Amino acid sequence: MKKQAGFTLIELIMVIVILGVLSAFALPRFADFGKQAREASLQALAGALRSAANIAHAQQLADGLTLGDDVTLEGLAITMVNGYPTADAAGITAAAQVAGEYTISAGGASGGNSITYTLQAGCLVTYTAATDGVGGANTSPIGASPDVQVTDGTC
C-alpha cells in the first residue's frame, strides 16, 4: 500500500473556520486608522507651532531685539508681538511653515489674538499669541506666553 500525504477535507475546513473567526475579531480593530491619523496630524501641528514660537523667541533674544521687532528665520521675516510670533500668516504660520490640508483662519497681529488651523469640523488647533502683563503691546513683563490648544473631539 502506498501512503498519501496531505490534509483531509475536515482539517482544511477547520483552518478556514478558525481564520474566519480570528478575522471577525481582528478586522474592526484595524479597519479605521483615519481618526488616529487625523489626531496624530493635529498633535504634530501643535508641536510644530510650539517649537516655531520658541525658536522665534530665542532668535529675538539672541539678536538683542525688542519685544515687537520682527525676526528672520530661514530667510522669512516673522512678525512678533510680546516676544513671540503673531497669530497670523506673517507670524506663526510663516514660522512653522504651515501649508497643505489645513484651513487657516485670518488671526490677528495683536497680543491675545488667535489663529485656527482646521483639518475638518471639530478637528483643529488654535494658537493664541502672547500677552503682556500691563495691558499694552510689547511691554515687559510678558503676562502669558503663546498658547496652543488641540481640539480633536470629532476627528
Oligomer: single chain
Cross-sheet strand order for the largest sheet: 5-6-7-10
Number of strands: 10
> How many helices does DSSP assign?
3
Task: Determine the mean pLDDT.
Answer: 89
Strand content: 15-25%
> Helical proportion?
25-40%
Radius of gyration: 26 Å
Which geometry do the CA atoms define? elongated
What is the H/E string? HHEEEEHEEEEEE
Gap between N and C termini: 66 Å
Q: Give a quick account of the main beta sheet: strands, pairing sense, barrel closure.
A: 4 strands, antiparallel
User: Unreliable stretches, pLDDT < 50, 5 or more residues?
Assistant: none
Give the class from helix and strand content and strand pairing.
alpha+beta
Question: Would you kindly provide a brief summary of this structure?
Answer:
By secondary structure, this protein is an alpha+beta fold. Helices cover 39% and strands 23% of the residues.
Explain what you see.
With 155 residues, this protein is an alpha+beta fold. Helix content is 39%, strand content 23%. α2 packs across α3. The relative contact order is 0.14.
Name some characteristics of this structure:
single chain; 155 residues; alpha+beta; 4-stranded antiparallel β-sheet; two-stranded antiparallel sheet; 3 helices; elongated
Topology readout:
Blueprint: H1 9-31, H2 34-63, E1 71-73, E2 76-78, E3 80-81, E4 84-85, H3 89-96, E5 103-104, E6 114-120, E7 123-128, E8 131-132, E9 142-144, E10 147-151
Helix pairs in contact: 2-3
